[in-house]
Write a structure and sequence with these properties.
alpha+beta, conserved putative lor/sdh protein from methanococcus maripaludis s2 fold, Elongation Factor Tu (Ef-tu), domain 3, 4 domains, 12 helices, elongated, cadmium resistance, zinc, transmembrane transporter activity, MFP_Cation_Efflux, transition metal ion binding
Length: about 475
């Protein structure tokens, strides 16, 4: 029975092998493994080799060693191919020799495609209109200055040259307060009115002295005319002259007293002439307080009816400040003090990091604070829009040095690609990637040591758009 089964399997294998050489070989291998045939298979027929080669050519022409979907992948297939080569080594070598030129041809095609992409590598085609739509700003490369800064915290304070108090120079009572806190005042504007007996006496003395001086002058002029004609005695002329001189002296003394009280003699005389008969006592007692500078009322110290002027009474009624310019007080340590100079530019950054301003150093104290071992430095800062409020803490960047460089480029123009610093230079068709070497730097710009020359037109704003476009182009090429 066993002999019969062996003969049957062998016959079936030979029949199938005639039509499908590869299946025949597989069956023969299985029979040999089962011990039903000799381990060494018979050499394949010429027809089988031809069909096998055609089958291999079909498979390699499509996907190399990949099998069709659903086709089994018998183990030891590559070893079996080596077995085929042992039957006809020359034929196998012939097949390998034919395969190599095909592979070489594929490499050549790759080389041609790669060379074609190399021509456009690092270049981006983009018209001027497209660049404008992307808000890409361009600038010509040139030399410039790099500034080094020292970071120092500071506090905003009122400018001592732009703050004033409205003082009380006489004893009296507050009759009017014309300004509220925060209101604007002009220089010389009346801000308050006092009722003062002291002022009334001073005005009265001046007006009386003025009237008496006028009378004495009239008498002196008449006596002089009579004396010239030798009609009157010389003694009368001399007495009139002495009286007039004394009256003039009294007017001068009264005028000085008015001036000491902050009153103008001409204004007092003009006010007195409004009443042709007797000076109005209420106007004589009226004392106007005027603002010594233009600004805003930042402090109000008295109310209507408050007694002022005496010892222990308020010495002033308002504080007026011009906040169009403020100071920033810095405490610079001795280790950095030698780097700070008067006139140096200073950048001020607010506590919210959104407010920025430009000022300059106006004072560097020669004295040190014995407790903090630091020196007081004052920075003047324009404050036209009143954005900087006294008492606010800020950070300052004090310029301590300047370096002149041949090629200066804004930091916004430099991008990093693959660890390299690059910029995008404008070309006739668009932009070109250019690798650069960075030198010195400040807060806003780099020194370019190589890769650019003065006159090159570079994207300095929104250059990240070009970086993204370049990345997309390289990704498409890799795919």
């Amino acid at each position: 029975m066993r002999a019969f089964l062996s003969v049957a399997f062998l016959a079936i294998g030979i029949a199938i092998g005639g039509a499908f050489p590869r299946i025949s070989e597989t069956v023969q291998g299985a029979l040999a493994a089962a011990g039903l045939t000799n381990a060494r298979a018979a050499p394949p027929t010429k027809a089988a080799m031809t069909m096998s080669a055609a089958d291999d050519s079909h498979g390699h022409g499509k996907h190399g060693h990949e099998h069709a979907e659903g086709e089994p992948k018998p183990a030891g297939e590559h070893r079996h191919a080596e077995g085929e080569a042992s039957y006809d080594g020359a034929a196998n070598k012939q097949s390998e020799g034919e395969a190599k030129p095909a592979a070489g041809g594929h490499k050549h095609a790759e080389g041609e495609a790669h060379g074609h992409d190399e021509e456009g590598e690092g270049k981006i085609r983009m018209s001027a209109e497209q660049a404008a739509e992307q808000d890409i700003k361009l600038a010509r490369v040139g030399g410039g200055i790099l500034s080094r800064h020292l970071l120092v915290p500071g506090t905003i304070a009122q400018d001592a040259d732009r703050i004033a108090r409205v003082p009380v120079r006489v004893v009296g009572t507050v009759a009017e307060m014309r300004k509220r806190l925060g209101e604007e005042v002009a220089k010389g504007e009346v801000v308050a009115v006092l009722d003062s007996r002291e002022v009334a006496e001073a005005k009265s003395d001046f007006l009386t002295a003025t009237v008496k001086a006028d009378l004495e002058k009239t008498n002196f002029d008449r006596q002089q005319a009579l004396w010239d004609k030798r009609i009157s005695a010389e003694s009368a002329f001399l007495n009139a002259k002495a009286a007039y001189s004394e009256a003039t002296l009294r007017v001068d003394l009264a005028r000085q007293k008015l001036s000491a009280l902050g009153l103008n003699a001409a204004e007092v005389a003009t006010s007195a002439k409004k009443d042709e008969t007797t000076p109005n006592l209420s106007s004589l007692r009226r004392y106007e307080l005027k603002s010594p500078l233009a600004g805003r009322v930042v402090e109000r110290k008295v109310d209507v009816g408050t007694a002022v002027g005496k010892e222990g009474d308020p010495a002033d009624v308002y504080t007026v400040a011009d906040l169009s310019s403020v100071w920033i007080e810095l405490a610079v340590p001795t280790t950095e003090l030698s780097k700070v100079r008067e006139g140096a530019k200073v950048t001020i950054v607010g506590s919210d990091d959104a407010s920025r301003g430009e000022g300059k150093v106006v004072f560097v104290s020669p004295l040190l604070n014995p407790e903090t071992r630091s020196a007081r430095v004052i920075v003047a800062l324009p404050n036209k829009d009143m954005a900087w409020r006294p008492g606010t803490f800020v950070t300052t960047e004090v310029e301590i040095a300047q370096d002149k460089v041949a090629v200066r480029l804004p930091k916004s123009a430099v991008q990093t690609i693959g660890g390299e610093k690059v910029v995008f230079v404008r070309t006739a068709d668009g932009f070109e990637r250019r690798d650069v070497t960075i030198g010195k730097a400040d807060d806003d710009a780099f020194e370019i040591l190589s890769g650019l020359k003065p006159g090159d037109e570079v994207a300095v704003a929104n250059s990240f758009v070009l970086k993204a476009e370049l990345g997309k182009a390289e990704a498409d090429h890799d795919h």
